[in-house]
Amino acid sequence: MLEALNLECVRGDRRLFADLSFRLAGGEMLYLQGANGSGKTSLLRMLCALTPVASGEIRWCGQPISRLGDEFRSVLCYLGHQNAIKDELTPLENLLTAARLAQEPLSEDAALAALERVGLQGRVDLACRYLSQGQKRRAALARLVYERRALWVLDEPYVALDKAAVDLVAGLIGAHLQRGGLAVLTTHQAVTVAAGAVREVWLGGLAASSAGAARASC
Amino acid sequence: MLSVIGAVVGRDLRLALRRQADIAAAVFFFIIVVSLFPLGVGPEPDQLRRLAPGVLWVAALLATMLSLPRLFADDHRDGTLEQLALAPHPLGLIVIGKVVAHWLVAGLPLVLLAPVLGIQFDLAHDALVVLTLSLLIGTPALSGIGAIGAALTLGLRGGGVLLSLLVLPLYIPVLIFGAGAVDATVSGLGPQAHLSLLGALTLGGVFFAPWPTAAALRVALE
Questions:
Q1: Which domain holds residue B189?
Q2: Alpha-carbon separation of residue B181 from A10, A105, B130, B189, B199 (angstroms)
Q3: How far apart are the C-alpha atoms of A86 and A96, rounded to whole Å?
Q4: Who's near B117: CB < 8 A, 6+ residues apart?
Q5: Cβ neighbour number for residue B20 with a 10 Å cutoff
Q6: B15 touches chain A (CB under 8 A)
Q7: Protein fold of A1-75+150-218
Q8: Which residues contact B122 (CB under 8 A, 6 or more apart)?
Q9: What is d(CA A161, CA B133) in angstroms, rounded to the nearest whole number?
Q10: How do A76-79 and A151-155 pair as beta strands?
């Protein structure tokens, strides 16, 4: 479903990677690895069409994502380095406003249940600026509890989380893969996701190793 | 389409209400700058009456400039802007929502205060009405045009000064027709022509300026 062909990334006058190709089908996870500054975040932003590719092409269901536009963005869930959490709003308001801006139906009960699932019960009415770094991250990740979009692009989802929360997020990603979703993520922590086939791509120096591309089913 | 704009306006108004100091700062700046003029140039009614439209309009431009740098900067810093850019609808619609919210927070208070401040300048009743009307019609253009500058200077260090240099020249037509409407009323010509041109500038500012703004935001996010 998600296909990258001969991607090249240039930052300033440095070429971070070139000739990167991979293919990801439903139920599969792509695990991006590489040293700091090897272009992991740049690749993730390319997959979201936030950064244009220097050369090469990214396709979703056979169509270039640049041409799909809104259609592609409506299957994409991106969580970046920053939490996209407003400090002035409570976690509950954050979830509800984000859903309204994305034009997704989200009831208050569903949002409350999601916040409880990530361990923020009792904090839902507290402005986010009073939350710790880890709690803010949890508030941002609460979206994954009810998110049913097909492609998850997660930039270091486990950063700032404690052990229990890391397991919870890994479980959510596993459930997503079991529903037939796709996930692309970077992390420096060794976390095993229970379900789904895992592909790995190394950036920087080593060639991309994603042999045996599976059939796409769109 | 309207629901997207409505969602953005609702969100930005709620955020502004939680951060009232920002609104108050721009409003008090406007009040103080306008009130300093009668103190500085002396209490001659004729002179004050002639100065009034220009002073109120320039103060309105500067007060709007104060709140512009934060129009996108906060969303950019906490990652919300990325999420807005990834929402499955045109970014221009979201910008329209943000421009409307900016006007409600930064422009509307100036319009409401103008008749009160105009009294300090001994403006006649009909001139006060036209002054308020010209600000009501013209200030949305300030938010719309200013958004282009805010997007172009997003993420730059010292962007605030650059923003003023970029945007203030673009405000000149709004200033000329806004202050001109009041002058025309005082001299008995009638303000209709000036107000119509102001209306045209506002329509352009609110409905056309958001699209280049959206393009500039996408570049800033790269």
A1: 2-221
A2: 53, 47, 7, 9, 12
A3: 12
A4: B30, B31, B34, B35, B56
A5: 10
A6: yes
A7: Rossmann fold (3.40.50)
A8: B45, B48, B49, B52
A9: 54
A10: parallel
* Every domain of chain A and the residues it spans: 1-75+150-218, 83-148
Positive or negative, the CA dihedral A145, A148, A150, A151 is negative
| DSSP character string of A111-148 | HHHHHHHTT-TT-TTS-GGGS-HHHHHHHHHTHHHH--
Does the beta carbon of B89 lie under 8 angstroms from any beta carbon of chain A? yes
Domains in chain B, number = 1
| CA–CA gap between residue B141 and residue A30 (Å, rounded) | 47
3-state secondary structure at position B52: helix
Do A103 and B77 lie within an 8 Å CB cutoff? no
Cα gap B104→B109, rounded to integer Å: 8
What residue in B sits closest to A86 (Cα-Cα)?
Answer: B78
For every one of its 218 residues, what pLDDT tens digit does chain A have, with 9 covering 90 and above? 899 988 888 888 888 888 888 899 888 999 888 888 888 888 999 999 898 888 899 999 989 998 888 889 999 999 988 888 999 999 999 999 999 988 888 899 999 999 999 998 888 889 999 999 999 999 999 999 988 899 999 999 888 889 899 999 999 999 999 999 999 999 888 777 776 788 888 887 544 444 333 333 34
Q: What share of chain A is helix, strand, coil (3-state, %, to 5)?
A: 30, 25, 40
Distance CA B14, CA B24 (A): 15
In angstroms, what is the C-alpha Rg of chain A? 17
Distance (Å, whole) CA B194 – CA B192: 6
Nearest CA in chain B to A73: B88
Residue whose tokens read 């202050």: B179
